[in-house]
Structure formats: structure tokens, C-alpha cells
Amino acid sequence: xxTSKNIHINLWINKDYHHMKSHITLTYEPLNLDYYVSQAxxxxxxxxxxxxxxxxxxxxxxxxxxxxxxxxxxxxxxKINKIIEEASKLWPLHSAIVAHRLGHVPTTEASIxxxxxxxxxxxxxMAVSYIIDHLKAEVPIWKKEIYEDSGAWKANKEWxxxxxxxxxxxxxxxxxxxxxxxxxxxxxxxxxxxxx
Length: 196
Hints:
- The protein is α+β, with helices and mostly antiparallel strands.
- Helices cover 39% and strands 33% of the residues.
- It folds into two domains: 8-159, Aldehyde Oxidoreductase, domain 3, CATH 3.90.1170; 161-196.
- A five-stranded mixed β-sheet has the order 1-2-6-8-3, with helices on both faces. Strands 4, 5, 7, 9 and 10 form a five-stranded antiparallel β-sheet that branches.
């Protein structure tokens, strides 16, 4: 768990996901939207889509004064990288950038910025939505809401335990194999009659 206020992880991954540029930042510093948008900009792109998650001042009738984020950084970086790679396989992106703030995040400030660029808007809009949904469900970043008189760690409603994901995938694979087997049985039943 990261506890030092001086940790700043800034990784340009530059893996070749269809010649896509990717960038992941986990930082205790305020996030700079203009910087990330400039990194995603390219003359070949007709769209840059952005998601900014901010700290709101209320939850369930309580006044929120700030959020506090903690992360297991090495795993968070690997998970985010995997999500970006998956998005790049689904949509032709020029770049995908994820910046997540750690530590204290006062109200109205950004806790996460996701920027995707592509030739057309649909791809970048879909990729931004995919990345935030999967990030919230799979990445080990934890949030504590600090109220005027107390605080509470918040369970992420979208978070899925890795074994749940693995079991769901296994169940889908079994279902696909069963379906394929049934289809083969139908072909085998028809097969002999075709040879007559």
C-alpha cells in the first residue's frame, strides 16, 4: 500500500497496440487535463474524448469534505495497462491515457482523468466508457470518504473479485463448448443422411 506523499508513478508504456500510444499516471499531485489532452492530440485524430471523475460534496445526506485514495500501485498499473490493451483491441485508438490521483482529493478536484483519441468519435467515446467501467471493477484503488464529523472506506459497487471474473469466464467458456458440442451433434445426425 502506498503511504508516502512523494510517490509519483508516470509511465509511458508505448506498447504497440495497433501503433497506439498509452500513458498511465498514479500521482499525489493535482491532475492537469490540458497536459493529458495535449498528449492525446494528433493530426490524424478527429476525436479526443475525456472523462473526468471529481469529488462531489455530498453522499447519502452527508457533507463530504474530501476523498482519500490508496492503491497497490504495481498491480494497479498492470491492471490499467491490461484494460487499455483490451480497449485497443476493440477500437482503433491513437492514444489512451489514464491518470488517477492518490491521497487527499478535495471537493471539485479531479480524482481521475481518462483521455482517448481516435480518427472518429465513436471509437474514443466507447473506449473511455469501457476503460472507466473496467477500472472501477478491476483495479486495486480504494476510496475513503471524509465527512465533516467522520469518514468511511467505500466499497466500490462496480468492483468484481478476480475469482468472480475468472469463474464467469470459465462458465462462459463451458457454455460455448456445450453449444459447440450440440451443434456438432446436429451435424453428425445430418451427416449420415447426406452420404446416402
